[in-house]
Design a protein that fits this description.
With 183 residues, the chain is an alpha+beta fold.
Amino acid sequence: MLPVYCVTHVPGLYPERQGVGPFGDEARLVRFFSKEWHDGDMPDLQAELVPEAYRAHLESLRSLLPEGAIRLSEINLHDGLIREVVCRGTELHVVVRAGDLQVGYFDVRIEYSSAIVSQDALSFLERAIGRRDVEVLYDEIDVVEGGGWKHSVLFCPYHEIAVRFDAVELSVTNVSSRFEGAA
């Protein structure tokens, strides 16, 4: 099992070379649904290709992805609020309150195994617990060069995090409202 690294940079986790984004952009934690895409800071024709490019990329990984990663890619975390973060040994546990008035609200409990996360990402998640002004915008599942998987998340206000993992398990619990049980 890999240890949880609480450092600012884990060599090889976030490649620092050019051309790893879907359109040759600089390496980012979030490859497809970036701040520039969300903000409209890329040409319209390019921006229109992003959702389909991600779907195609995810489909190309589907036969390799662990079952939990497939499930995670199918859950809409948009507007999700961080409810809980626990880091123990090589396990990272994150609870996100997601949903909306149309589909209802639910807590997604994400259990990453053999997790590697930067200190910045872990600190950000811990500071976001219970805050109504920090929301998930978009998230992506991707392969990590050299083995393993990566769950990248773009938040509003703009901040990107990524968790490298070998396996992930999910549980989903329905709740009555977006702020049920909030402090």
